[in-house]
Design goal:
TPR-like_helical_dom_sf; Pentacotripeptide-repeat region of PRORP domain-containing protein; DNA-binding; mainly alpha; PPR_rpt; repeat; Serine Threonine Protein Phosphatase 5, Tetratricopeptide repeat; 33 helices
DNA sequence: TGAAAGACCG
């Protein structure tokens, strides 16, 4: 079997890669003299260099280089042509790369497996993994042998198009039929796919498996799993993997620590975060832009905008430039506090720094105004962003739709929704959730059900959150049987209730005075390994109060405290009112002793 | 030989 075509050798051609390196060097601020052109280059090379200096980022320039290459004698090597393709890929001009490749084929320019792999990668980025497989067929037909990179690229393409199961099967077959010697990268592609499809535990198993197969996991493999565990709020498991890494002599890097810090931020474990930062310092790993952005986000979300501002100063002092994410995150923090003047100031600062707000930045701002019920300003911002040539995303429309529904501006919401469909915005599960919630919130449960069936027929698979919204809607409408049915059918749909849906059931039953059924839900949660949270207990306790079941409330309060939860504001005030009243129940008196010594 | 694939931020 041949391994590619022998390269045509040439010494006269200044490689595209070299050009690009020069190009980026000339663009970097540290370049001593951007106009300096070495004089030992040929006229043609200087021309190329000139081109690259003014900007090789227009695909036209690359095409001109390609035409020049075609006319050269001897013809540049397969490596040179491949480098041109790689350069186009680096600039994300995937479709141009594909057309250059097809031209190469029509001119019978030699190509090899690397050339093919690059083009397959382009197809995958263009969301046409099917073309990628057509190319794989061409590879076989021409007698080339796909290597592990070719397959990794295809697997990634499948996964990026939500075909993870196909990717997994293909990977298994590649191993089974010994088509590749798997490396850490291809394992990571699958591990990452499992993580992103919510199967972190399987990812962990694959991490173990690769080791058994003699492919030592590296820091990237660990980072992938650590990140996923952190996102699943299983930071302690992630910390366990960190310890394991050091046992195995695998050095953690800034990505490892950033993921862990992210996980700890979500749990507000500030002491542990400090310890991680100290650990990094000890290991001489400096926080990078991502790390700072994570910390800034955590502080901003927690309302600590002053600390967030300080962190931005700190990152600048440490040589990390704040980017659009940094500023957008800070803006989000201001919006959360309703400090819109400051949010708008950030927008101005960004522009002054030459960082232009994108659709997501506007969406954050629009979301902020919607959450504070300033719908008209939000709508105005939508117009502004469109005028600036930014295309609102499905998230932009969704947040506005949510605002309109909550403000009970139904007619506008309806028009807005139609408008959004006309613009060709593809609905996702989150938007559907917003629509269903909005309809239920306005007492339109029947419309919500119609919409629900419509979304199912469109191929959107409702998740537990969607069902929770509908169940909540039914309860709100007093339709207990419908709510109960929907809940009991969850298992038939292959879904497990989560703590939120259980809480909705408990709240619904309590509202209807069905305390026994509510309590049964609590038991069911424990059976299904879904631990009750503070909301669960508070809801049930308030239900007991309302139905004068003070003994039950007493027991539940003890149980809640034993789990480390506290009575929330509404439970406390309800208890306070009860104690003020004339009722003299022994259990009430006992509670009084407990709470008000 | 080279040139291609994998992890972290709104």
């Amino acid at each position: 079997m041949r391994h590619g075509t022998p390269a045509l050798t040439t010494t006269s051609f200044c490689s595209v890669n070299t050009l690009l390196r020069l190009h980026s060097l000339c663009q970097s601020p540290t370049c001593p003299n951007p106009n300096h052109i070495p004089n030992h280059l040929s006229e043609f090379q200087q021309l190329l260099l000139e081109k690259s200096r003014v900007g090789f980022d227009k695909p036209d320039d690359a095409l001109r280089v390609f035409d020049k290459m075609l006319r050269m004698k001897p013809l540049p090597s397969v490596v040179d042509f491949t480098q041109l393709l790689a350069a186009l890929v680096k600039m994300k001009h995937y479709s141009v790369a594909v057309s250059v490749f097809s031209k190469m084929c029509s001119f019978s320019i030699p190509v090899n497996i690397i050339t093919y792999s690059i083009v397959i990668n382009c197809c995958c980025h263009l969301k046409r993994v099917d073309y990628g497989f057509t190319l794989l067929a061409a590879i076989f037909k021409r007698g080339f042998v796909p290597d592990v990179v070719t397959y990794t690229t295809l697997l990634r393409g499948l996964i990026s198009q939500d075909k993870f199961l196909e990717a997994e099967l293909m990977f298994k077959n590649l191993l089974k039929y010994n088509q590749i010697q798997p490396d850490a990268a291809i394992f990571n592609t699958i591990i990452n796919g499992q993580c992103k499809t919510g199967n972190t535990s399987q990812a962990m198993m694959l991490l173990r498996y690769m080791e058994k197969k003699g492919c030592m996991p590296n820091v990237v493999n660990y980072n992938t799993v650590i990140d996923s565990l952190s996102k699943d709020r299983l930071v302690d498991d992630a910390l366990g993997l960190l310890a394991e890494m050091s046992d195995k002599g695998i050095q953690p890097d800034v990505v490892t620590y950033s993921s862990l810090i992210q996980g700890l931020c979500n749990l507000n474990r500030w002491d542990d975060i400090t310890q991680m930062l100290n650990d990094m310092d000890r290991h001489k790993i400096s926080p990078d832009k991502h790390t700072y952005n994570i910390l800034i986000d955590a502080h901003a979300r927690d309302g600590k905008v002053k600390d967030a501002e300080y962190l931005i100063e700190l990152m600048i002092r440490r040589g990390q430039n704040p980017d659009i994410v940094t500023y957008s995150t800070l803006m989000d923090g201001y919006c959360l506090r309703g400090e819109f003047d400051k949010a708008l100031l950030v927008l101005r600062i960004m522009r002054n720094k030459g960082i232009f707000p994108n659709a997501q930045t506007y969406t954050i701002l629009i979301n902020g105004y919607c959450k504070k019920m300033k719908l008209d300003t939000a709508i105005h911002l939508l117009e502004e962003m469109t005028l600036k040539g930014l295309t609102p995303t499905v998230e932009t429309y969704s947040t506005l739709l949510d605002g309109l529904f909550r403000a009970r501006r139904l007619k506008e919401a309806h028009n807005f929704y139609k408008n959004m469909l006309n613009k060709g915005v593809r609905l996702n599960i989150v938007t559907c959730g917003i629509l269903l919630y909005g309809l239920c919130w306005n007492g339109l449960v029947a419309e919500a059900m119609t919409m629900f069936h419509k979304m199912e027929s469109c191929g959107l698979v409702p998740d537990i959150h969607i069902y929770s919204i509908l169940i909540h809607g039914f309860f709100k409408d007093g339709k207990v049987d419908e709510a109960r049915n929907l809940f009991h059918n969850l298992r038939l749909k292959g879904l497990w209730p989560d703590v939120i849906s259980y809480n909705i059931m408990i709240q619904g039953f309590c509202k209807e005075g069905l305390l026994e059924e509510a309590y049964k839900i609590l038991l069911e949660m424990e059976e299904n390994n879904c631990l009750p949270d503070e909301v669960t207990y508070n809801t049930l306790i308030r239900g007991c109060f309302k139905n004068k079941m003070y003994d039950g409330a007493c027991v539940l309060i003890d149980e809640m405290c034993a789990h480390g939860f506290k009575a929330d504001a509404s439970t406390t005030s309800m208890l306070f009112d009860l104690l003020q009243s004339k009722e003299q129940d022994p259990a009430l008196l006992a509670m009084q002793k407990k709470f008000m010594p």
